[in-house]
């Protein structure tokens, strides 16, 4: 049995240095728990559980979804032979530029929007909705940012409503919101009569200041207190919307928004590279785990009509 002695752990007397190390570790753990408690006391949990007068508003492109929903939709339409390769190349370039720059190009968006208004004219709203359901599964579901999805889920778990706010067509935005389990969506509204598109917009695209006005109107209708609401976006174009609420977040921010957010001490999160952006007091509850009116539909429906 002596030969097996090496298998039996030996008890060794604690040295003064090991005793000191153990005591230091215990003291550090005690202090750490105290600091955690102090931070929790100084910064209450957010979202606030059961606060029915609070809600969250999320931009879509590059905030909830990588890239632009509009261009992903165009890719699905091309697959269905709704338009030609030349048009696909143009949309592919716009999408590539968007992903590399991380910001919206007003010229690109205007071009797409103008095409959409003429192309959707005469087509049924139900057709666009049906196509959107299929394309979400094919191209959009895998491009949802898990980190942003978790932020939205934190609000839902707290019993709050969560809305998408986007320049994309409201029909497409509504499909995405429903698939993510969100409350609903605010999007660009294309005029329709008896379920058929007229080729006109109701008002203007939901972009920039228009988003803030939409949020303000919804808050009034829903009886929300905007000072208790949160808004999330990647773009400086959405500063009006972010400034409207009491809890603004910059998600995957462009350079202008990042600078503005740091100046005003807004919370930041960046999910694009796996690295964390500069942390500005984002609540633990919101960081759990790793969620242009009518453009893409326009091209497809134009070709299909022919």
Relative helix content: 40-55%
Assembly form of the protein: single chain
Major beta sheet, specifics?
A: 6 strands, parallel
Overall mean pLDDT: 75
Pick out the low-confidence regions.
4-9, 35-43, 274-306
Q: How many DSSP E strands?
A: 8
C-alpha-based Rg, rounded: 25 Å
Kindly report how far apart the N and C termini lie. Answer: 91 Å
Which sequence of SSEs, written as H and E, runs from N to C?
A: HEHHHHHEHEEEHEHEHEH
Strand coverage percent: 5-15%
Helix tally equals: 11
Structural class: alpha/beta
| Tertiary shape | globular
State the strand order across the main sheet. Answer: 3-2-1-6-7-8
Any key phrases for this structure?
single chain, 306 residues, alpha/beta, 6-stranded parallel beta sheet, two-stranded antiparallel ribbon, 11 helices, 8 strands, disordered C terminus
Write a structural description.
- With 306 residues, the chain is an alpha/beta fold.
- The chain contains eleven helices and eight strands.
- It has helices at 16-42, 69-79, 85-101, 106-119, 125-140, 146-157, 170-179, 209-222, 239-244, 255-264, 295-305; strands spanning 55-58, 161-169, 184-188, 190-193, 196-201, 230-233, 247-251, 267-269.
- The strands form two sheets. It has a six-stranded parallel beta sheet with strand order 3-2-1-6-7-8, with helices on both faces. It has a two-stranded antiparallel sheet with strand order 4-5.
- Strand 6, helix 9 (239-244) and strand 7 (247-251) form a beta-alpha-beta unit.
- Helix 5 packs across helix 7.
- The longest helix has 27 residues, at 16-42.
- The protein is globular.
């Amino acid at each position: 049995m002596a030969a097996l002695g090496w298998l039996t752990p030996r008890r060794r007397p604690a040295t003064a240095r090991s005793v000191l190390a153990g005591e230091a570790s215990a003291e550090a753990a005690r202090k750490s728990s105290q600091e955690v408690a102090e931070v929790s006391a100084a910064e209450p949990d957010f979202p606030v559980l059961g606060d029915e007068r609070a809600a969250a508003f999320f931009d879509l492109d590059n905030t909830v979804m990588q890239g632009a929903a509009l261009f992903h939709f165009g890719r699905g339409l091309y697959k269905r032979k709704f338009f030609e390769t030349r048009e696909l190349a143009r949309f592919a370039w716009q999408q590539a530029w968007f992903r590399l720059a991380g910001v919206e190009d007003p010229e690109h968006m205007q071009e797409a929007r103008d095409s959409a208004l003429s192309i959707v004219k005469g087509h049924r709203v139900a057709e666009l909705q049906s196509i959107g359901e299929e394309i979400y599964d094919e191209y959009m579901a895998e491009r949802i940012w898990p980190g942003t999805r978790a932020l939205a889920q934190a609000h839902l778990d707290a019993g709050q409503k969560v809305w998408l706010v986007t320049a994309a067509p409201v029909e497409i935005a509504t499909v995405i919101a429903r698939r993510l389990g969100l409350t609903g969506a605010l999007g660009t509204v294309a005029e329709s009569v008896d379920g058929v598109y007229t080729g006109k917009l109701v008002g203007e695209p939901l972009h920039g200041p228009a988003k803030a006005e939409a949020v303000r109107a919804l808050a009034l209708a829903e009886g929300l207190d905007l000072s208790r609401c949160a808004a999330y976006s990647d773009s400086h174009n959405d500063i009006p919307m972010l400034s409207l609420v009491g809890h603004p977040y910059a998600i995957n921010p462009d350079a202008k928004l990042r600078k503005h957010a740091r100046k005003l001490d807004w919370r930041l999160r960046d999910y694009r590279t796996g690295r964390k952006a500069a942390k500005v007091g984002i609540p633990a509850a919101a960081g759990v785990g790793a969620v242009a009116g009518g453009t893409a539909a326009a091209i497809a429906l134009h070709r299909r009509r022919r």
